[in-house]
Design brief:
289 residues; Rossmann fold; 2 domains; 12 strands; globular
Length: 289
């Protein structure tokens, strides 16, 4: 409800707080909410289906960090994603006997902005100092949802500048939320090396994205996804990193706080509804059926 009367509806709680609204509640699946001058009427048009399958990628990337989503603060989840990732990164390095007397890294930097809370959590658990490494151009949008490869690659070049002093002659641990096509990661690593980074270790706060989304997120087709037919080592080599660590599905869901009620299809291939795996995301764009 608005402070001076009336109602407002938004997809994120942050927008309602900006307007000074008192958050009433979430609109639940299958509901029709009718607003009038005198009343708020709720009709259950379709019966709710159990279990639910909310998009877990909201926590990883899409949602504003100050949002409360599904009753949970997004920023807190992202910090826990970083904490879980630090534990798995440390265990992998230890298993490979790569821990040195001077530790496993000199600085932790995020790819802003969605990865910043995770980098804070990673630094807290790993003991590696946190610092900014990239400055983001605020006038360039999200690159992985650009419609073509050429626009995505151009977007990376325009979107980030490196703070040379924070990475020069250092083993840099880079925290990013995801690798979808891989068009962003390689150029970012190249920028860091050009700025004098001694090593670049990529740590990703979600598992490899091996399957496209058929629920409305523009992740492209199977062949567009860098992880669809490549191993982690192959991806690491392709993007030019010294190492690559993905968070496991179990680690991701520990950070979220529960294991059920979320769609994980882009990581596991287990879709919550039956889908045509041969569908092209551009079908509607081309006007095809």
């Amino acid at each position: 409800m608005l402070p001076n009367g009336g109602y407002a509806v938004a997809s994120e709680t942050g927008a309602l707080r900006t307007l000074g609204c008192e958050t009433i509640r979430d609109v639940k699946p299958g509901e029709i909410v009718t607003l009038s001058a005198n009343a708020l009427t709720v009709t259950q048009a379709l019966p709710p289906v159990s279990p639910s399958a909310k998009c877990v990628f909201e926590f990883i990337y899409f949602a504003r960090p100050d949002q409360t989503w599904d009753g949970v603060n997004v920023h807190a989840v992202r910090q826990r994603l970083g904490e879980e990732l630090a534990r798995e990164f440390g265990l992998r390095i230890e298993t490979e006997n790569r821990i040195r007397e001077d530790g496993i890294g000199d600085v932790v930097i995020p790819v802003p902005d969605s990865s910043t809370p995770a980098a804070i959590g990673f630094a807290r658990i790993s003991g590696i100092p946190f610092n900014d490494g990239f400055i983001k151009n605020r006038y360039v949008g999200r690159t992985f949802i650009e419609p073509t490869d050429s626009l995505r690659k151009r977007g990376v070049a325009l979107k980030f500048n490196v703070i040379d002093e924070n990475v020069r002659d250092k083993r840099v641990v880079v925290i990013d939320d995801s690798i979808v096509r891989g068009n962003t990661t390689g150029p970012l690593i190249k920028l860091l090396r050009q700025s004098g980074a001694k090593e670049v270790h990529m740590c990703i706060t979600c598992p490899p994205i091996t399957h496209p989304c058929f629920m409305g997120v523009d992740m492209g087709r199977f062949e567009d996804l860098i992880a669809h037919k490549r191993s982690v080592d192959e991806i690491c080599k392709k993007v030019g990193a010294d190492s690559l660590t993905y968070l496991s599905v179990d680690g991701m869901m520990r950070a979220v706080g529960r294991a059920d009620g979320f769609c994980q299809a882009c990581f596991t291939g287990k879709y919550p509804v039956r889908v045509d795996l041969m569908s092209a995301k551009t079908g509607f764009e081309r006007g095809t059926k």
